[in-house]
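Entry:
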Amino acid sequence: MPTVLSLHLGATAVHAAVSVDGRIDVLALADDRASVQAPDPTDGRGLVALLVDAYARCVRIADAVPDELVLVRADGAGAVDPVLTEAARRARVPEPTVLDEMRAVAALAAYGPRGVSSDLAPVLGGVFWKRSGDAPTGPKPIVTRADLGGDSRPDRPPSAPSVVAVGPRTVFEEEGGSAGRRRGVSLPLVSAVVVVALGVLGVFLVLQSDEQPIAPPPATATTTVPASATPQSTVTPTTVPSETVPPTVTSTVEPLATVPPTTLGDASDETDGDTSASATTMPGETDVDPDSDGRSDTDQGAEVEPDGETGSSESPTTTEAPRLGTVTLSGVGLTVDATTDDEVLVGFGDDAGTALTLVSGALGEAIGDSGWGADGTCAAAEVRRLGWGGLQIVLARGSVDDPGRLVQWYLDGPDSTQTSWWTLERIGIGSTVADLRAAHGAGMSLEQPSERDPAGWFDTEPDLGDGVLGAVGNTTDSGRVLLMWAGDGCQRRFS
């Protein structure tokens, strides 16, 4: 049997239960208690952390890897289902089955034991629902003695007939004195004998009358038809001409010329930070001569061989992703030396001193430092902004004694082809809307607040709320990213 992990996301607490080889147990989510505090259903990060921890405790305590996941939520809270599904994907747990509390409790009442506390009823009901389905509905079936294996005869004799019977209903109910009444000839019996006799007599008379012919038989006349009177027609067989199938015409289609993809410039090829704008080609852009027939320079002059290969002696180039810098951007923080063995994540909420040490070790000493102070655009009492050109990090603290934490990063300035500040998906300043769609798919949100302004805002993870946000010059595929940020410590979007 599959291992099923059930989680009940209550209003204030979260409970867990696990079914392993048919045995159902309550799974403690903390070392000293069975439940943990319930996160906000719209808090994607909190849900991801909850699912990861529950999955790990199931493996460690129950010694079983969950094959299926059931998430029981409040009735009528279907709006959070996309958040729950995305959180499960981020946590790398099985795709969840989202269930209403009422259906889970009904399944427990139908298939589970009695006397379960109200706190545990939804989470245990999720396991029973996964095992047996919804509770049966409608009237209960009628149970007979045959269903129970007993005698099908009724317990009491049938009621008396509604019409009073005259005389005995059976020969066994006749009284002894009835024999005396049989001495006389029964009038109905005499009547029946007379009727039968008359019927036999009538049949005999009818049969006698049928033997006499009604009329003499008619004379038989023979008519001879001459042979010439019946003409014989000869039908000429029809010959169906065979269809002529026209010969197949074979057309020759010339092969199309293959355009080699454009090679992106590598930030490592820059010298002293001087980059030629003409030597850099952004993704999705090609150099097209307006006086040409619409083909790029790589298309013109290419001869197509019979086997589809071009006559050029140069082999087609391959598209290479730009090289990541020492700091890589993400929706959950900054990564130092990403994709290497020395990779370190500096996440939002990490200690401010540790975060500053790691970032400074990768980028050098900050160019700008605001120091600690109040900032009306930030939620914390005091913030500290540190910058390295177009990249800024924000540290926040509640008081002077508070060590502070990392709450946000912000990026603008030159194109990322010059700075090498990218996300893992190679999204940076200068990337196009087409690049954003290719990297994040349909889950990304893109809005244009004003019809008079083609600019727009994007969010790579609107469901979980831990994505990268930013602005584009226009919302068409050719629109370019102007600025980016992640973390909600300070407001970056203003009306």
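The longest strand covers residues 13-20.
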